[in-house]
Amino acid sequence: MLNILVVFVILFLRAPAKLLVPQLWAEDGAIFFKDAYQLPFWENLFKPSFGYLQIIQRLIAGVTVGSHLYVATPLIWNVLSLLMASVMIGFFGTQLYEKLIPQKQLRWLLMVLAAAGGSQPEILGNLANIHTYFGLLGLHLLVWLHFFSSKNVKLRWLWSTLIFLVVVSSPQAFLMVPLVFLEAWRQRHTLGKTSRLFVAAFALGIVAQTVSYSWNQYQTVHSATFASNILSVEQLGAKPELNWKKVSRVVTTRELIQNLIPYNVADQLIAQYLVVVFAAGIIFISYSIVIKKKTLVFWVVAICVMNVLMLLVARPIVLADIARIGEVETYVGGRYFYISYVAVLLLGVVALAESKFQKPLILFCFFVQVVAGLLFFPSAIHEENFNWFTHARALEGGSRAPIPINPHGWKVELDTPF
Q1: Cα–Cα dist 28/413, whole Å
Q2: For residue 63, with 0-12 CB atoms within 10 Å meaning exposed, 13-18 middle and 19 or more buried, which class applies?
Q3: N or C: which end of the chain has fewer CB within 10 A?
């Protein structure tokens, strides 16, 4: 429990406004609140977003809005989002990773780095982006199958149900499918009842997501206006073209330097890239890690490659974000590479465990992250206070006026409630 609390505090420090001035963010209002308000509970629960299912998010929305807790909705959602992210990251500090990283302090180092960096704060404290953290499930399952395939645990049906629910709530689960199934096949002679249930739950969730995505992949699901005007609402109904010219501009020296330091997220990028470079340096110094941990090295390389490939077949908004990278916002697509960031950190920490200079390197790693990241997190993304309390009270009184939400330009447009 302590590890979850520590991660929760770190995530809160990165985005304190999520709890101090709670408001809905983007799809939280334009999709989840709107659908929960206007649709029957079960129809809302299984309605796809950009083709894929988001069962947990819609369950939370349906229960909250269905209970008419309009005023408290942003706070409840933000707290639950931070808590779920804390649980997913908190696993790094548990005995699940003990055989891979025997030293407890190194497991906690990985946990802190995974919580403190890796992407801009847009993914923090909202249901719209919690699927980014749900993507860590595949990595946790890989470690379980590799080191604990024959072990049986109590409440395995409950854990299996939770695995299924996470998979049917996150498109990120697709990224880990080849590795999870490959590891399950490699350990097929030692798989215990628990591991078989875990793999079955994961597979069932993937089947459900695949069926949903195949039927609904280019469905327009909301009418929010994007402030960037890069992609209009009408374009969401069709597969956009990937602008390779814009993407290629990122690799040129001049454009790279200009785009790596956008005005309000420079600290995030510095924190992210310094830690990744540091992890890469540790791996290089401890070159023996390549020989001793071949399976882990394979996992990390495969995750990074599949992360890129997945974007080529991903939902339209992902392609839109990539298409505009070369023009204004290098950091926008960063959240889609969170799993790759954590995978590199995992390999770096494992390599650190093999290093002769472990203690000074640990201290330096903490120093880099704290100085470059934590001290600047609160100012990384500016959110306007649209006074949700006033709008929620008006909604309770029967008002159907559009409700403005963050980021600027988004709004909740409501019709007659169910």
Answers
A1: 12
A2: middle
A3: N
* Residue entry with tokens 């590799």: 146
Give the strand pairing for 403-405 and 410-412: antiparallel
Residues 6+ apart with CB under 8 A from 321: 329, 332, 333, 336
Q: Give pLDDT < 70 ranges for the chain.
A: 117-121, 217-291, 311-334, 355-382, 416-418
Owner of token pair 């406004």: 17
Q: How far apart are CA 373 and CA 116, in angstroms?
A: 7
* pTM: predicted TM-score of the whole model, two decimal places: 0.80
- Per the document, the length of the chain is 418
- The tens digit of pLDDT for each residue in 347-398 reads 878 877 776 665 566 656 655 555 555 544 444 456 778 888 888 888 888 8
CB-CB contact of 372 with 274 (8 Å): yes
What tokens were used for 150?
A: 């024959």
Cα–Cα distance between 133 and 339 in angstroms, integer?
8
